[in-house]
């Protein structure tokens, strides 16, 4: 080829990469591997001390939702109970009251009936109690009515006097009740107190309903 050196034979010299570059590549790979191992170990330590899985579960969207109970009014025709079952309380004008005197004091049934009429109740029979109750009612009064009147007419009449005893019998008509005046009776409750008791009875009561805050 015209030069001083010539290549003869069928073998050629092998070209090798410089040793310095190969050492540099190995150093970079080793450094990267070491950094990865250090980072992985750090994450494991953080999980151990902070409970990473538990926190991740608690941070989910469902864990942030908390249910709270808020009252909402429910009522029947005239009121409701806290059980959520509405009860219908008839107005005094739809209740017929038989006023019966079970005491030795005369005129007590007539005076009580007149006062109840002023307060809007309908008046039925007025007179002495039957032998079953005559001089046998020791308390303020005994209120008698049908089973269906237990949660309707009887509580409405009961707002007009204090410490009366309620009792049901076999009659069918729920809007007709008896007021049997006992020996402990002095007078009906004052008008303002009776009105307040009736308003409280028929006021809608709150029923708790769960609501989510998220």
Automatic annotation (TrEMBL):
Stretches assigned to the LytR/CpsA/Psr regulator C-terminal domain: 95-185
UniProt keyword annotations, A-Z: Membrane, Transmembrane, Transmembrane helix
InterPro entries, per the entry: LytR/CpsA/Psr_C
Membrane spanning residue stretches: 24-43
Keyword Transmembrane helix listed: yes
Region (Disordered): 55-92
Pfam families cross-referenced by the UniProt entry: LytR_C
Signal peptide residue numbers: none
Name recorded for this polypeptide: LytR C-terminal domain-containing protein
């Amino acid at each position: 080829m015209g030069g001083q050196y010539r290549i003869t034979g069928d073998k050629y010299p092998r070209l090798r990469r410089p040793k310095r570059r190969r050492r540099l590549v190995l150093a970079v790979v080793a450094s990267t591997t070491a950094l990865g191992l250090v980072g992985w170990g750090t994450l494991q330590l953080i999980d151990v001390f902070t409970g990473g899985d538990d926190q991740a579960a608690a941070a989910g969207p469902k864990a942030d939702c908390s249910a709270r109970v808020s009252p909402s009014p429910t009522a029947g025709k005239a009121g409701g109970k806290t059980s959520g079952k509405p009860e219908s309380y008839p107005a005094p004008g739809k209740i017929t009251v038989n006023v019966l005197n079970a005491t030795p004091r005369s005129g007590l049934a007539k005076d009580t009936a007149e006062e109840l009429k002023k307060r809007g109740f309908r008046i039925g029979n007025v007179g002495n109690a039957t032998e079953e109750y005559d001089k046998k009612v020791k308390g303020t009064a005994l209120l008698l009515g049908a089973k269906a009147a237990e949660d309707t007419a009887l509580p409405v009449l009961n707002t007009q006097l204090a410490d009366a005893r309620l009792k049901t019998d076999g009659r069918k008509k729920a809007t007709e009740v008896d007021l049997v005046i006992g020996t402990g009776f002095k007078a009906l409750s004052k008008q303002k107190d009776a009105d307040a008791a009736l308003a409280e009875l028929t006021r809608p009561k709150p029923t708790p309903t769960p609501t989510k805050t998220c």
